C-alpha cells in the first residue's frame, strides 16, 4: 500500500474497473493503478477527482488531501479510519510523558541549529564569519543537550535565533539588509519573504500530519492553544533553514527576487503578485527536488517523502516512547 501523488493541475482522476485512472488535459492516460494498492491520494494544484472516485475512496477507507500548487494544505476528504484514533491515543499519551518530550525537543532543536550552521557556512563565501561565530552555535548545541526542561531549550533556541538572523543579515546583498526577525507586520522585504515561505511550509506539514492520522493539537515543544497546529509548529523548526531560508537566499543572491517584487502597505512589507509567483515557484521546486535528507541513508528523496517518513517515525516513537525511532532531517552539515 502506498500514497498516490498527483502533482499537475491538468490531471483528471477517475475510476474504472477498480483502477484509478489519471489523464492529462488531452485525455491521454498518464498512469493507472489498482485502488487496492493505494492508501491516500494527494492532489496538488487544480487536479480533479470524479464523484465516482471520491465515493470509492470513502468506501475503501482511503483519504484524499488537497494542496495548492506550492504545497499549502487546503482541505481533505477523510473517512475516519480506526487506526487514526489509535495513533492519536498514542500521541496524547506521549504528550504527557515529560521525559520523552524533552528528548524529542532536544533532537529537533539540535538538528535545527546544525542546519543553521550549514546554511551560514554555505553562503559565507567571503569569509565574514570566523571560528568564534560558529562556536556560539556549537556551544548552544551542548547547552541544549544538557537542558533539564523544554522551556530551557526554547530559551537557548530563541537566543540563538537572534544570532542566526544577525549573521544571516551580514550575508545578504545590501538592498535586503534587515534588523532581526519581524512577523506581523513584516518590517522589511527579507522578513516579508520569510513569513510567506514559512506559512507555506507550515501548511504543507499540516497536510502531511493529517494524512498520517495524527492530531494537529498535540505537539512536543510548543504548547497547544486554540486554532494552532502545534505539531506542525514543532516539525517545521528543523526544516526552516533547509527549505525556506536556503531557497530565499539563493533567489536573492542570484538576483531573481528583487526589491521591486515587494511593496510597503501601511508599514507592512508584502510580496507583489509577481514576487509571490517567483518565490512560490522556487519553493515548489525545492519541495519536490531530491536530496540526501536522511543521514544514514545514502539515497536521495524529496522533502515531501522525507517529511512523511519522518512523521511515520514519530508515530513509532510515540508507540514505544523511544527517541531513537524518530528520524531527524540531514543536510550533511552536522
UniProtKB/TrEMBL annotation:
Gene3D superfamilies registered for this protein in UniProt: CRISPR-associated endonuclease Cas1, C-terminal domain, CRISPR-associated endonuclease Cas1, N-terminal domain
Molecular function, one GO term: DNA binding
Designated name of the protein: CRISPR-associated endonuclease Cas1
Top class in the EC scheme: hydrolase
GO biological process: defense response to virus; maintenance of CRISPR repeat elements
Oligomer and partners: Homodimer, forms a heterotetramer with a Cas2 homodimer.
PANTHER family found in the cross-reference section: CRISPR-ASSOCIATED ENDONUCLEASE CAS1 1
Pfam families: Cas_Cas1
UniProt function note: CRISPR (clustered regularly interspaced short palindromic repeat), is an adaptive immune system that provides protection against mobile genetic elements (viruses, transposable elements and conjugative plasmids). CRISPR clusters contain spacers, sequences complementary to antecedent mobile elements, and target invading nucleic acids. CRISPR clusters are transcribed and processed into CRISPR RNA (crRNA). Acts as a dsDNA endonuclease. Involved in the integration of spacer DNA into the CRISPR cassette.
Name of the coding gene: cas1
Cofactor: Mg(2+); Mn(2+)
Species classification: Bacteria, Bacillati, Bacillota, Bacilli, Lactobacillales
Enzyme Commission number: 3.1.-.-
Family: Belongs to the CRISPR-associated endonuclease Cas1 family.
Entry keywords, A to Z: Antiviral defense, DNA-binding, Endonuclease, Hydrolase, Magnesium, Manganese, Metal-binding, Nuclease
Residue sites binding Mn(2+) per the record: 157, 222, 237
Keyword field contains Protein transport: no
InterPro entries membership: Cas1 (IPR050646), CRISPR-assoc_Cas1 (IPR002729), CRISPR-assoc_Cas1_C (IPR042206), CRISPR-assoc_Cas1_N (IPR042211)
Amino acid at each position: 500500500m502506498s500514497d498516490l501523488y498527483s502533482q499537475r493541475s491538468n490531471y483528471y482522476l477517475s475510476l474504472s474497473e477498480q483502477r484509478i485512472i489519471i489523464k492529462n488535459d488531452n485525455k491521454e492516460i498518464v498512469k493507472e493503478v489498482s485502488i487496492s494498492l493505494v492508501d491516500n491520494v494527494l492532489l496538488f494544484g487544480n487536479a480533479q477527482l470524479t464523484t465516482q472516485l471520491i465515493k470509492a475512496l470513502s468506501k475503501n477507507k482511503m483519504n484524499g488531501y488537497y494542496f495548492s500548487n506550492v504545497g499549502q494544505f487546503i482541505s481533505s476528504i477523510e473517512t475516519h479510519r480506526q487506526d487514526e484514533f489509535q495513533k492519536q491515543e498514542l500521541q496524547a499519551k506521549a504528550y504527557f510523558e515529560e521525559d520523552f518530550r524533552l528528548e524529542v525537543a532536544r533532537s529537533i532543536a539540535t538538528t535545527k541549529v546544525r542546519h543553521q550552521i550549514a546554511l551560514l557556512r554555505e553562503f559565507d563565501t567571503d569569509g565574514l564569519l570566523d571560528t568564534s561565530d560558529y562556536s556560539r552555535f556549537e556551544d548552544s548545541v551542548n547547552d541544549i543537550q544538557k537542558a533539564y526542561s523544554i522551556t530551557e531549550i526554547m530559551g537557548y533556541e530563541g537566543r540563538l535565533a537572534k544570532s542566526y538572523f544577525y549573521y544571516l543579515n551580514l550575508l545578504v546583498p545590501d538592498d535586503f539588509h534587515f534588523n532581526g526577525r519581524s512577523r506581523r507586520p513584516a518590517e522589511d522585504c527579507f522578513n516579508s519573504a520569510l513569513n510567506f515561505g514559512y506559512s507555506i511550509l507550515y501548511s504543507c506539514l499540516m497536510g502531511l500530519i493529517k494524512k498520517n492520522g495524527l492530531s494537529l493539537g498535540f505537539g512536543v515543544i510548543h504548547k497547544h492553544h486554540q486554532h494552532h497546529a502545534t505539531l506542525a509548529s514543532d516539525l517545521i523548526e528543523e526544516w526552516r533553514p533547509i527549505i525556506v531560508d536556503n531557497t530565499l537566499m539563493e533567489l536573492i543572491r542570484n538576483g531573481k527576487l528583487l526589491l521591486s517584487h515587494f511593496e510597503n502597505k501601511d508599514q507592512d512589507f508584502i510580496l507583489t503578485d509577481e514576487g509571490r509567483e517567483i518565490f512560490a515557484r522556487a519553493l515548489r521546486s525545492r519541495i519536490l527536488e531530491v536530496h540526501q535528507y536522511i543521514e544514514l541513508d545514502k539515497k536521495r528523496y524529496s522533502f515531501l517523502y522525507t517529511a512523511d517518513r519522518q512523521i511515520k517515525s514519530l508515530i513509532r516513537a510515540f508507540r514505544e516512547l523511544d527517541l531513537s525511532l524518530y528520524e531527524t532531517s540531514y543536510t550533511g552539515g552536522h
